[in-house]
Description:
This protein is α/β, with parallel strands linked by helices. It has 14 helices and 17 strands. Helices cover 38% and strands 20% of the residues.
Amino acid sequence: MLKISKFGGSSLATGDQVRQVCDIITADPTRRIIVVSAPGKRHSDDIKVTDLLIAAASQRLMGKIGASECAEAIERYRNIATELELPTGIVESIAHDFTERLEDSTENADLYMDTMKAGGEDNCARLIAQVLQTRGVEAHYVNPKDAGLLLSDEPGNAHALPEAYNRLRNLKERPGITIFPGFFGYSNEGHIVTFSRGGSDITGAILASAVRAEVYENFTDVDSVFAANPFLVENPAPISELTYREMRELSYAGFSVFHDEALEPVYRAMVPVHIRNTNNPKSAGTLIVPECNTRETPVVGIAAMSNVCCVYLSKYLMNRQIGFGRRLLQILEAEKISFEHVPSGIDNMSVIIREDNLPVDKEKRVVEKIRQTLAPEDVSVERGLSLIMVVGEGMQHTVGVAARATSALAKSDVNIEIINQGSNEVSMMFGVKSTDMDIAVQALYKEFFDGHNS
Ligand code: ASP
């Protein structure tokens, strides 16, 4: 039996938390490969180590020094080491490493930024290995390059190359407990590259898939995944089991508890994911599995994401024009804009895009190109929208879910701007004005979960 256990930043933010993490690791001899994030926030207005490192790197890229942000990051490790009464040597070597990174060449700004960002996880893994060693446990830090975590050459947004999986398989044979830093790997050219933010979840998933772990434990700071955002709905229902597809839909649309890109590797290898709470390891958590046959309710969760916009086009007889959709999407592709959904009618098409993918200058260029190339009667961009996703495998076999959802929204006076049912029938999407988002989530939650049963 082999488990991969990943600990998120909030589980590693203080000496006390690190102690708790080490207790969890040593409590189960099958926890042999551990993935760690960088120390996260200690309280709500704290700064994550990764953000301090990004700030330091940004300073240097602007021709300044960045030393104070870097010193603040080092201080975080010093505090943890002091709390745990570790020998001072470890902090000195961490400080040395950060200083070297900070002073590295900035010739390629993206690679420089990734080298800095990766320092948070890399040094945290070294520190955890040391804490375990001082407890007399055989634990070894393993560098992702030596282990073979090869990533695409896409700084800040890399993905694993297929050959990485074979190489990483050998991790199983290593003696003792392997402490593996999350969030980064190496490109074929030997450069450090990171995943997107929150990417330590992806590292854990890749390792779990490569070694065919029995389970991928993802330790975070909540007891389980909840059916709705606890900031929007009071005391939402905990979810005990979810399918990979459901979790992907929910994560993609705003459930931040697990990175949506971390699902593909575990899904491919059919490794179950167990979301657990570091501060309450006895709680049952949430299990993410291939199929979930016991649930009797059609909807499992309601997610929402704001800051979305919609490019809307109408053209009479659009349905007769072969290639209209392709040409529209080509305009977006040429501007490197990724889109979320493309709901369409006979004479109109809309493209839903995250607002940060369509800044105002790009919007102007895109609208102009659309006018020139497609000559629509109307083209406009609506900003300030939110997408609400109603998610559940059970919707495939249940009549009336859309009717219940739309009438719940109508009763709450929420105007639905866009509706789209995912072709896999695991999710239904409603686009509403962002000012209506909270009320829409609350109305849908009440409809499907009131009294915690739908
Ligand atoms: N430390 C990185 C971040 O803050 C990655 C992670 O925590 O998973 O995004």
